[in-house]
Amino acid sequence: MTEAKADDLSTLDGIIDALYDSISGPAGEARDGERFRSLFLEGARLVRTALGEDGSASAVVMGVDEYLHA
After folding, report:
1. Which pTM does this prediction carry?
2. Is 24 helix (H, G, I), strand (E, B) or coil?
3. 3-class secondary structure, 59
4. Is-contact 70 53, C-beta < 8 A?
5. Which residue stretches of 24-70 are H helix?
6. pLDDT tens for residues 25-57?
7. b/e per residue, 23-51, with b = 16+ CB within 10 A?
């Protein structure tokens, strides 16, 4: 596992900026998966809300790698 950059963890804003920088960008540009992984503890889970065709909400629970490949 890659160790997080000190600047990424020094403030709450730094963590949020690092999170968005590692997974956002122009279409077709690769995500920075190593940086993204470094922001989470081992075994971390991410939860995304999804809406079904009928409008019902559900939770989609993923590990960090699952999120990166979704």
Report:
1. 0.77
2. coil
3. strand
4. no
5. 33-38, 64-68
6. 778 888 899 999 999 999 999 999 999 999 999
7. eeeeeeeeebbebbbbbbeeeeeeeeeee
